[in-house]
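Lab notebook: predicted structure, single chain.

Context: the supervisor wants predicted structures on file for every construct in the current expression panel, including those that have not yet been purified. This is the next one on the list. No modifications to the sequence; it matches the entry in the shared construct table.
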Amino acid sequence: MRMISFVIPCYNSEKYIEKTIDELMSTIKNNLSNYKTEILLINDSSKDNTIGKIKDISKKITEIKIIDLAKNFGQHSAIMAGLKFSKGDIIVCMDDDGQTPPNEVEKLINALDCNTDVVYAKYKNKKHSYFRNLGSKINDSMAQSLLSKPKNLYISSYFCMKKYVKDEILLYNNPYPYLEGLVLRTTNKIKNVEVDHREREIGKTNYSIKKLLKLWLNGFTNFSVKPLRIAIVFSMIFAIIAILITTIVIINKLNNPNVPIGWSSVIVLLLIIGAAITFILGLIGEYIGRIYLSINNNPQYVIREVYENEK
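Prediction complete. Output recorded below exactly as produced.
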């Protein structure tokens, strides 16, 4: 019998994780009874009592395995920890807040076939906040330009994949994983399936501006050298602007020898060149910093405890 592994990163979900798990278990019982299942809950160092709550839930559901991280490493690192412990032939990743509906997981699983390795949920009507939707659009544009993502492919946090894709993803052991980049570099046999998207019933999104910027930076620098090439183009543009300004100043001096060369032109030129140099050095520094962290084996995650019921 084939197995499905459900990987669910949990962060500050004490108030709603039980409802999500109950719905998932009901779906497994009614629609996926021909599969063996396991549920991996990864507590990403929640500030509330999420770990206590999911331990209580696991006492009633033997299929649950809990991975408690030592500190907050972020959603993608938490998922990597879950993938490491997953044993299924099919792996399903979903959110802990119920906005990605567990009762529609069968649609994703059924869409996996000989010509499809990964299936992403595509929402008919997203219920995220304006800020989160804006972040998704920026992330989508970045993936298209830097990771060669097909324009018509929608990438979400609700997806399933075959075991071989998971195994290839786990070969990446450097810090700051970016799942979309790892999937896109592994296979192009990816499709979308439409599912509903729910309103958040309790609380608010855990994605802050800081976390979104960190996530985008991971995509920029971990899986593409295009930012460096863009920096070269910018430096060339700034150099051309500097040459034009210098030419204008020289022509103005030749045509009007009695007019002193204005200091403002020099200041503008210095500002343009300085901005270009600062931008490029900052970008190069980011790449070098990540190389340094990788060489020093900075961990993707650190596991404090693995909790599993004896069967």
